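Re: Re: ligand-bound prediction request (bumping)

Still looking for help on this. To restate: I need the protein modeled with SN-glycerol-3-phosphate bound, output as structure tokens. Inputs repeated here so nobody has to scroll up.
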Amino acid sequence: MIPSTKSARRLHGGVRGFAGALACIVLALATVAGACAQVESRRRGDPWRDEARFGIALAARPLVVAHRGSSGNWPENTVPALLAGVREGADLHEFDTFESAEGVPYLMHDRTLDRTTDADERLGRAAVAATGAELEFLGVLDAGAWKGPPHRGVRVPTLEEALNALGPGQTAMIERKDGRPEPILALLDRMGRMEFDVLQSFDWAWLAEVRALEPRVQLGALGSGPIDAQVLAKLEALDVDFVHWKHSDLDARVVGELRARGWVVGAYTIDDPTRQTELAAMGVDFLTTNEPGALVARQGAGSVLRSTPASAR
Ligand code: G3P
Ligand code: CA
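Reply:
Sorry for the wait, this slipped through. Here it is.
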């Protein structure tokens, strides 16, 4: 059951100012029932059958999510890693974002630039913060050399560059590590990708902010640890579309419970074929892996499939 406050928040999300609020009160009497029905129907839908959720059909196999691009063999969170994920047949392309000094979202995983760029060498000091780094500085960094000589000279992409590289046919799974919702949402809107790409975060307060601002975007809650009644209640209050959980904290009971409540369920980050097969048998909807090509190949060979084919449900 979706709390009525959530429906009201979605309904009022775009309203600004007193006049708008007054108009909304009148309109709300006529529309709130319809809005509630729409939200409830979305949440009650069987993820197997709800082909609109990730902009692609959910199939009789877990979808393959390329983690930070195809990061096993390519420098994570870069355009070459994303393009490798596309070539290898990943269904979605996960990456992480921070916000630059100018307010521009860009791709980076760690809170500092040290591990995956030469920022520390260039500045002659360690622990160079990712939050608030200047675009001009980010633009000259080498984000590939740490992965090996063949990747030398690869750049740190902005979110816009990453989405342009993926193109209109590939779904991005954007994990916000730090930064405001507005620049990400504005970009998705401008690029016509609001209902196509998906947004996720470990920061559930940030997810609530996003939902209040934008009812259209598909949102995912990242997490780890036991999923008890308290966690389920928090997830319900968030109104997210998918739950993306640490694979070692998932079992068949938990996956079944989450899916029965209408969420698409994913597991991160798993490269081991035996564990991938176990998770698929539990019914997870997507698997996040550093080696998407290997998982696509396993599925092509008939393994790592869902326990129950979509056609039989
Ligand atoms: O998308 C799930 C996974 O990326 C979360 O962990 O640390 O790799 O961002 P992390
Ligand atoms: Ca991530």
